[in-house]
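Hey, quick one: can you model this chain's 3D structure?
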Amino acid sequence: MPYSQSLAGRTRDLLAGRRDIEEKRMFGGIVFLLNGNMLVGIWKDSIIARLGAEEAEAALQEPDVGPFDITGKPMKNWVLVGPDGVDTDEQLRSWIDRAERFVWTLPAK
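Sure thing. Here's the predicted structure for all 109 residues.
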């Protein structure tokens, strides 16, 4: 299944106009990088979000959230948020904001 163009477009719209954001194809979908570090991505009809250890662990307890695992080994500090968890722009913005709080702690690449 190709990635959701609609979800990608909504994510693009929320990140539009930012010079610190770059878009790349990866994981069979696309990812958005903040200062060279992966921030969020679109995989199939879900968003993947990079949250850091504590935030990712807490997020896994939320509805529509699971580990990001496409190879049989979950990616550490990442979560996969299903379509119902990003149905509205407010929900999508919340996941981007959560990821951004963590990614800003990383050195730029």
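One thing worth noting: The longest helix spans residues 89-103.
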